[in-house]
Structure formats: C-alpha cells, structure tokens
Amino acid sequence: MQTAVLIVAAGRGTRAGVGIPKQWRNLNGQSVLSHTLAAFRNVKGLGPFALVIHPDDEDRLHGLDLTDVILTTGGANRNDSVRAGLEALAKEAPDAVLIHDAARPLVSAAVIGRVVDALAVHEGAAPAVEVTDALWRGDANLVAGTQDRTGLWRAQTPQGFRYHAILSAHRTHRGEAADDVAVARESGIAVAIVAGDEDNLKITREGDFDRAAQLMRMKTMGGLPDVRTGNGFDVHAFGPGDHVWLCGVKIAHSHGLIGHSDADVGMHAVTDAIYGALSRGDIGQHFPPSDPQWKGAASHIFLRHACDLAGSMGFTITHADCTLICEYPKIGPHAAAMRAEMARIMGLDPDRVSAKATTSERLGFTGRSEGIAALASATLVRLT
C-alpha cells in the first residue's frame, strides 16, 4: 500500500511567543520542520511527501531538504491547508495518507508504524494517549467542578486515512474542525485508535521548546545524562612582588606572578577546564588580554563567568580538581582555604572541589622556581 505523508506547516503559532512561526524556529541546531521531515523520512516505505506552508514563508525554505517533496501553500485555516495538501497529492493517487502537524518533531517510528499498520484494516487510524489525570472545570481560575475522564483520549498526529476517502471528506467539509479525525467522522469514516506516545509533543507554547530539546537529547544519549569533562592548563612566570594569588588565596612569597590579570594560575586552569567541558573556548576568547579593562582583574570574575555560562546551558558542575606544580611556595598549609574559596565562588560544596600540589622534582622551569603551572579538570552534568 502506497502511503503518502502530508505535513501541515502553514500555521502562525502565536501561542509559542513572538518571532518567527514555531515550525521554522531552531531546535537543537535545526528547524522544527527539519526534524519533523526527518522523522518520516527515516521510516522506510513512505512517500510521496507533501508540505503545506504559508505563502509568507517561501523565503524560509532555503536550507531545507525538499528532495521529492511536493510543495504547496495553505489556506485561511488548517482545514483549508490540509485540503490544499491533499489536492497536491492527487496526481500521485496514493492508497493512504498520513496527515501530521509540523510542530510535532518527536514523533517516533513506532507511532508512525502503528498508524500505517492499522490502515491495512481500517479506513482511518490515529494515535492517542488515554487521559489518566483528574479533570476539572474551571471558572475565573477556581475549580468549578469535575469531569468524568472515562473514555477520553488526547489526540495526536499523524492521523492516517485511505486517501480518496479523506480527500472526499475535506472537499465537502467547510469551516473549522478540531482535527482531521473530526472531518473524517463527519463523512462517516470510522477511525481506529492506536497507542500514541507521551513524547509525541506538539510544540504550542514557548516552554515547549525546552522540553522538546531535552527529549531529543535524551533520545540521542539513550536516556543517559549528558556528562562532560574538560581540562585546563596554565603557566605564569615569577616576577617582582611579595605575594601570589593561587586558587583565590593570597599567599606571601618572595616573588609575584606575571600576568595581565592577577595571574591566579590555579583559578585560570579551572576556568579553562569548565570552558573546555562546554566547548566554549578559553579565557582568552571571553576576556581578551588585549582589552585594558581586564588589566589586573581578579580571576574570580573569569571563574564566575564560566560557572554562569554552564548554568545557562543547563549544566551542573559536579566536581573540579586543580593541581599546582611548583617548588615554592608550599601549598599544603593553604589547600583547605583554596578549596573553600573556590567552592564559594563556584557555588559548590567544598567536598566537590580539590586543590593540591606537586613538584617537578627540580626539573624544568617549575623545578628551577621560574614560575608555577597548574593542571585542572572539571566535570559537568546536564540531565536529559
């Protein structure tokens, strides 16, 4: 049975917030519509494809893979747009058609397959999820009563039909309808319910983009959290001075450390480790040494920026480890204070921060007491 796919992408999606329509907005590096098309293309045996867009969106097609896609423009409402898409498929005369909302980019091959299989014995089939929550009726944000949930389902797409039957139904239907199942039933087409999927989310409001992105990451990572590890390394030479800053602690010493900022080699290494885990460069990219405003700056500014960036990307820093490499000053007496200060800046428990030291056995520039090096690692986790 030849089964066509009709994707409706002509809506304006005003509830999803200001900006371009939701089907064209970015979701994990691609447009929502790109993900939706890919979901059906990954299922063998489907085609031809038809795509219905708004006339104002033709300039948004650049970069979209439209190979073997029949393109048409929609009408004043969703029903008009579906009818336009069905008419565009008339020359192909498929046996069946799957009608899908572009704003459902997470539809699974399993859901698609269940609809296709049901069409072998039914004129129509659509996925749905049984209502299990209690239902209320509301009035002015107050509970005004309850609603029996027996026999209630939450409808999803794709909704599948024998092609000629649904085309005839849409040709005779006028006005609005809840979905294509409503149009079909109006024409006497029986529609079978198949199991839907809670992850088959329809992006409707602004917050749905974050939820969809998390679900996609979960599928990509096989349900595992996104764990990142980054490394940082830094070196500063000794110069004139009577103290050094190491991991946020001021330590008296016969020399200072030379640097554009306060030359806190330990804090710089930890900062770069966080940037590395995020794949966001290093300190020099975020705080260029050519910029005079960072002359003599306290390094906690850099570390705090890296921590805030991690949070904005949905990551939690779970551990940081810093090893200082030097002959002098001796780090042991200050290690606890270093851990406490780094933890304070990073918003972590001190048990999640390590600060320690080693020598280079009198070898190299650190062995000759010409400077201090630091090596750090950081572990970040984002729950998918």
Explain this structure.
With 384 residues, this protein is α/β, with parallel strands linked by helices. Helix content is 28%, strand content 29%. It has 2 domains: 3-220, Spore Coat Polysaccharide Biosynthesis Protein SpsA, Chain A, CATH 3.90.550; 226-382, 2-Layer Sandwich (60s Ribosomal Protein L30, Chain: A). The chain has helices at residues 32-41, 78-88, 109-118, 163-172, 180-186, 207-220, 265-278, 283-286, 300-312, 335-346, 364-367, and strands at 3-9, 26-27, 30-31, 46-53, 69-73, 96-101, 124-130, 135-139, 142-147, 153-155, 159-162, 191-195, 226-239, 243-246, 249-252, 256-257, 316-325, 353-358, 371-382. Strands 1, 4, 5, 6, 7, 10, 11 and 12 form an 8-stranded mixed β-sheet that branches. A 5-stranded mixed β-sheet has the order 16-13-19-17-18. Strands 2-3 form a two-stranded antiparallel ribbon. Helix 7 (265-278) packs parallel to helix 9 (300-312). It is elongated, with a radius of gyration of 30 Å.
User: In terms of per-residue confidence, which ranges show pLDDT below 50 for 5 or more consecutive residues?
Assistant: none
Q: Topology as H/E string? A: EEEHEEHEHEEEEEHHEHEEEEHHHEHEHE
Number of continuous helical runs? 11
Structural class given helices, strands, pairing?
alpha/beta
Which overall shape is indicated by the principal axes computed on the Cα atoms?
elongated
- Helicity range: 25-40%
Number of domains: 2
Strand content: 25-35%
CATH architecture type of the largest domain: Alpha-Beta Complex
CATH fourth-tier homologous superfamily of the largest domain: Spore Coat Polysaccharide Biosynthesis Protein SpsA, Chain A
Mean pLDDT value: 92
The CATH first-level class of the largest domain comes to Alpha Beta
Radius of gyration: 30 Å
CATH fold name of the largest domain, please?
Spore Coat Polysaccharide Biosynthesis Protein SpsA, Chain A
Largest sheet: 8 strands, mixed
Distance between the termini: 38 Å
